[in-house]
């Protein structure tokens, strides 16, 4: 059973235009799941995605972004993707820092 969670969130960015169609007070559907077996991107690749993660939880999310990049290279039209990543100690938790700078 999934709990019904309601609350307010302040949107502080419109990076990549992913939030352009939203206005203050609009509702956004979210799915919060614990390590689900069926953890995957939406079947419809044109759906935009917003991802939040921290620490080593970045690894599968980074894979989702890389998959979208490969789909774009293959000429497919995919939805926009936005990744929010946070960590407490950049020296220990920012695992892909050098990869991303080089990329």
TrEMBL record:
SUPFAM superfamilies: Ferredoxin reductase-like, C-terminal NADP-linked domain. InterPro entries: FNR_nucleotide-bd, OxRdtase_FAD/NAD-bd. It comes from Dacryopinax primogenitus (strain DJM 731) (Brown rot fungus). Gene3D superfamilies: Nucleotide-binding domain of ferredoxin-NADP reductase (FNR) module. The keyword Flavoprotein applies. It comes from the Eukaryota. GO terms for cellular component: cytosol. Residues 53-97 form the Oxidoreductase FAD/NAD(P)-binding domain. Keywords: Flavoprotein. GO terms for molecular function: flavin adenine dinucleotide binding; FMN binding; NADPH-hemoprotein reductase activity. This is Ferredoxin reductase-like C-terminal NADP-linked domain-containing protein.
